[in-house]
């Protein structure tokens, strides 16, 4: 028996697909397809918030420099305001890596609900429902490989 995918709730082998304790033998599955749900506005708003958190200190620094030049104060005051603005802009550096990592994970997880369906014993059955696009892709490809491996190969022409 070959294992194509295995985690705590899903196991795909060369003989069956097991999801949340339910087992579907590959011999009884005739077709597999997927459906995408609507976009999650919560996920999109989270991405926007991360973008704003990245841009906020840079915008504040640019506004501080502009204000320092516009006020036309003494050189000491102008240098102090520009220096403080540059420090605010540099504050984004240490947190940028952290924020970019969260943004990257957000895109890997996706912004839609995904469903995997199969025709099992002649009727459609939803095998999987998740919002994690990366995990869904791994499971869907594992099921495809298992189904392809289980199909008989046609005889070769001589």
TrEMBL record:
Segments crossing the lipid bilayer = 44-71, 77-100
Query: What keywords are annotated for this sequence in UniProt?
Result: Membrane, Transmembrane, Transmembrane helix
Query: A single Pfam family, by name?
Result: DUF6232
Put simply, this protein is called Uncharacterized protein
Q: Which organism is it from?
A: Micromonospora endolithica
Give the organism's phylogenetic lineage: Bacteria, Bacillati, Actinomycetota, Actinomycetes, Micromonosporales
């Amino acid at each position: 028996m070959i294992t194509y995918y295995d985690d705590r709730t899903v196991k795909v082998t060369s003989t069956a697909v097991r999801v949340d304790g339910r087992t579907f033998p590959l011999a009884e599955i005739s077709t597999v397809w997927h459906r995408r749900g609507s976009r999650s506005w919560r996920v999109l708003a989270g991405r926007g918030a991360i973008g704003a958190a990245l841009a906020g200190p840079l915008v504040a620094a640019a506004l501080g420099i502009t204000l320092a030049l516009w006020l036309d104060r003494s050189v000491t005051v102008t240098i102090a305001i520009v220096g403080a603005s540059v420090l605010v802009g540099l504050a984004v550096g240490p947190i940028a890596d952290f924020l970019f990592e969260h943004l990257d994970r957000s895109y890997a997880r996706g912004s839609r609900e995904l469903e995997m369906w199969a025709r099992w014993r002649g009727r459609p059955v939803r095998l999987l429902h998740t919002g994690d696009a990366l995990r869904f892709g791994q499971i869907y490809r594992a099921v495809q490989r298992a189904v392809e491996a289980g199909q008989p190969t046609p005889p070769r022409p001589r």
